[in-house]
Amino acid sequence: MACSLLILLWVEDEKSVDAFHAKRDRLYVVYERQYYDNKIEAFRGGPCLLADEMKRVLPQVELATQFAWNYNNTFQFGDKINKEDGNFASADYFKIFSYPLLQGSAESALNAPTKVAISRKMANTFFGSPAAAMGKTLRYENRKDFTVSAVFEDLNSHSSQRFDFLLPWEFFIEENIGWAKDWGNNGPATYFVMKAGADPVAFENKLTHFLDSYNKQQGPDFRIQLGIQRVDQTYLHSEFKNGKIAGGQIEYVRLFSAVAIFILLIACINFMNLTTARSMKRAKEIGVRKVVGALRSALIRQFIGEAMLLAFFAVILALALVYFALPSFNELTRKEISLPLAVPGFWLTIIGLTLVTGIISGSYPAIFLSSFNPIKVLKGTLRFGTKATLFRKSLVVFQFVLSIVLIIGTIVISKQVNYIQQFNLGYDRENLVYIPLEGDLAKNYDVFKTEALRTPGVRFISSITQDPTSIENGSSGVDWDGKDQTVRIMFTQAGVNYDFTKTMNIKMAKGRDFSKEYATDSVGYILNEEAAKRINYKNPIGQRLTFWGKKGTIVGIVKNFHFNSLHEPIKPLIIRLAGNNSTPYWILMRTEAGKTKQALSNIEAICKRLNPKFPLSYRFSDEEYQKLYTSEQVIGKLSNWFSFLAIFISCLGLLGLAVFTAEQRTKEIGIRKVLGASTTSLFNLLSKEFLQFVLLAFIIASPLAWLLMSNWLQNYSYRTELSWWIFFVAGCMELLIALATVSFQSLKAALGNPSKALRAE
Description:
By secondary structure, the chain is of the alpha+beta class. Among the domains are: 27-234, no CATH class; 439-613, no CATH class.
């Protein structure tokens, strides 16, 4: 019960993400379906001008806001300088989302280009309190001042969005003027509230071709359709397949909901087996009660009542166990779950859990025990039929099936997580550090690089426009000789600086890296092998390539490397040489093994001198990579614990059946011992049957586990194999566990005194 309650609390917490917004029944996000290159790609994003245009053109839209990706920016107030994570959003944002405002109003929080809304944490950091923050001026990136217009409560784990500040959308457009006003570009999310009474299906049908008259890039080889999804469903249903919403975290919610039911069911089966195993001890009681007039219905009510009473005491103990286990469970799952004792629905769930558990666990023993014949009981000739025995054996086999499936699933999940962690990405993520290229560091990049390379422990320095573990920006604005103009290919792109391949430790397949010795490299391009394959030049080095209207040549081909999650296949990538300008970059720094701490200490001193208004911040490549698989790591740990508990509980059921079998065969064992049977032969006799249960369960569980785990692995473009040894190991583990469980009881029965078993004869 405690285990099932923990899973139930986790499931409810997952389902509650983004479900607290007051307008959630009418709150939607727009997603794009892009048709090109004989495939359909879908993502939540769109043009930067979409929200205002939807409000202007579509009468069903009540409120709408744009919302950009997360930024890590530097703010200053007086002598206090700190980095904060935040976003850009339109004026309607706080009218749409129900984030509590401690100061300010939803109407005025973001309605001017010089306003900023900050969190309670950020207000306390800079000003001491939310009230003291109102009207104060914060210096942004040492180049623009913003006035605090609102303070909102810190976002908790029930929100899928994470930010400590929001800047106005007008400023985002100003910062990205080069592309943000072009309907052919996209990226930011668009949220909107539909007017009450509007039909979502009819609205979505109307919205599907909304961009046809705005985006002039569309044609036979490329088209965009829009769809909508309720915001409270985006966390659980986050993935797309062939342009349709296909799943996501909901798969784990369903999986662990089933695990919770199975664990409780296994426990109920145990209760049945343990109760029936000790039935001989209650047989005379039942016989006497029946002789003196007790009805079978009364006996059934009594036994179910006993089960209910046990379930009641069990749920009290379970709640205590959950209370003490929650801190560790929260640390494991990275959540903030608490027992909702003040919520009436929780107590209704507890009552329902108690009743269901009591009825399921008590029903079969009640029917079985109440069916005893009082004459046979009192004469001592009571024997159980094959049907009753077969039913109990079937329950144990069912337990073993669930246990073996869980063992196989746990091994596969663990194997996939290890596969991800050890996978050769095509670059070396160890000793690779990202430093934001911001403030004066951008214009002093060359000076920084020169001084950094003189620092002990620093091997190489380069820069890139995006995090190398998440390069997302794409474009179809690529042309080359012999291109099929009827096919639109989307290329991922990144701007880098000199020494990029050395710093990342990426292998060159052909050609060379960018070099200052070649002035033409300003319009030179490096492709990955996948891009070279799509362009299909026979000898690509030196061949013409036009990107974003800039004509140039291909100078090198790099080996394919992974610049996104292993959930996705490697996409065609074009690497261009980016100039030193004010665009935010990441500095890439390769350090010598074991000298990273020393190198960062020296780098901090350089940054303080060259960029005094910005505190040094950095990220480690290997940690950023691990963040891509946080969900898998948590699920893997949960699987380990739940599998252990399920197996342990199954062993209790097996012990119950072993006790029952030994009691049933007491006289047989006594006779065999009198006739000279050895302890070893009796042990084998009693244990053999249980090992047959394991073999049968293994035969049933193996194809079921193979099907389930094959489907789970399909979520990864790069995945481990379902090797035969996984099933063999799972079967052997279950066999050893079963043998260890029954061996004690079997030995006890085999070593018993036969005279005690035969004295009645």
